[in-house]
Specification:
Mean pLDDT: 94
Distance between the termini: 44 Å
Shape: globular
CATH topology of the largest domain: Rossmann fold
CATH architecture of the largest domain: 3-Layer(aba) Sandwich
Radius of gyration: 24 Å
Structural class: alpha/beta
Largest sheet: 10 strands, mixed
CATH class of the largest domain: Alpha Beta
Bound molecules: 1,6-di-O-phosphono-beta-D-fructofuranose
Number of helices: 23
Low-confidence stretches: none
Number of strands: 16
Amino acid sequence: MDESPLQTIRYRYEPKLPAILRSGVDRVAVSLGEPSRAADGIRDLFPKTYGKPVARFVEGANPDMRRKLTVGVILSGGQAPGGHNVIAGLFDGLKKGNPESRLVGFAGGPGGLVNDKAVEITADLMDRYRNTGGFDIIGSGRDKIETPEQFEKAAAAVRSRGLDAVVVVGGDDSNTNAALLAEFFAGRGESVSVIGVPKTIDGDLKNEYIETSFGFDTAVKTYSELIGNIERDAASARKYWHFIKLMGRSASHIALECALQCRPNVALISEEVEARGWTLARITDYICDAVAARAEKGENFGVVLVPEGLVEFIPEFKALISRLNDLLAAQAQGFAALSEPAARVEFVASRLPGELAALYRGLPGDIKLQLIMDRDPHGNVQVSRIETEKLLIALVEARLAERKAAGTYKGKFSWQNHFFGYEGRCAFPSNFDADYCYSLGFTAFALIASGLSGYISSVRNLTAKAEDWTAGGAPLTMMMNLERRHGSQKPVIRKALVDLEGRPFQAFAAGREDWAVRTAYRFPGAIQYFGPPEVCDAVTRTLELERGK
Ligand code: FBP
């Protein structure tokens, strides 16, 4: 048999929908609130789509839901568990509304729209992907639709396929693209609707209207299982300090949730590092203090969680990366002409100002190269490829040696390093993500059928049972501000970083001093798809705490 038993059974799982979307589709009416507002500068850039009201679905007559529609969907950016269910919810909504409606999937991300590469989503194809992880039904990509030519090509593809709408499933950058596309069509007077869906395991696309991005739930549960297993191994073997880097390109939501679930000895939270202005040396001492305190008790083992985005939050590194981003954008040609790694390092180092040049030159060779690797198409440094955990291990080892020489530390320090990221991005979606994603997709259909554009699908009240969730849409422009990218100011959706005053961080801060010294590990175990609801349908601690549970 090619399929695993779980795969076969998951195909048959029926995702739960909010009650409002379960009644007949023509009983789903849209209720619009007050005009929305946004940060300075956004109104000028989005004259056609600025100020739209928040939409909410309520019971009422809506014959528009029966319209025959042709829709294109794009999966954009990094994989996140549940993407297939977004497509399934969208597909089922369209077919319920009108069996003649059609859905096409653009292949390989936004580039598929620009180059007009798409596949028809048929019922047979859809059934092979329901409730599974991955984005492989149509693939994903990180291309950005940016130049006038790309917009024209996208518009031509939409026109030639007779599309009524495009759904962009993505994170902050991809939904920014969705907002630009919506504005473009509106500016042309074309009645093509563009709807975004909030995706990213990083959990940093959230605000009043988006309680969590999809995929976060499954990814953190997968990592927490692995961290719990490592904690048990550490406490059994009693000989290693495990340094675990966790994905999350910028915000530390993943590391924070895993810390709440697993109670490691040390968990660094990038946002706190930045707020306190901690230098690399200070972070090193912070870890060494926990190592030394545990060594005093004869416990020469432990677990340290390191958020992937940390380097961009350490003040001296932040300044360095920002300077490198500008330098690599401004001197792209000269840099690209060099093929030797050493020549590239020297090219950069010789153009940095004094202190930053010294910091850069003093880093281990691998880290120097990792910092000047290609930026992603949105201008971001690829932090998943910077081995921050190894940098910290080297610094901690050196500092402990100094302490030993000074007689202030007597323990043994052996280490292992890990990076958990890709392991969690394509797991079978948890029941929560399966239900949430299906609901987001179905909601996207209802927004399109209601003739709305420039919105992000919004399903809320997520700590309640799925039937009590609410469904609607929030205007994308209200989530935007201006940020510096590729050396110039660009409109982007605001990233939600960890709030140091927020309940999840406060809960972590209340426990961490104890966890640093005591072996207080907690073992979440593997995601369960069947069994008691308190295990199978549990949401993340982050969501519970943020929602006051
Ligand atoms: P998105 O923001 O597109 O959802 O991607 C998030 C992420 O998984 C980050 O956590 C990670 O830094 C990055 O993608 C890795 O990117 P890539 O898949 O291109 O290696």
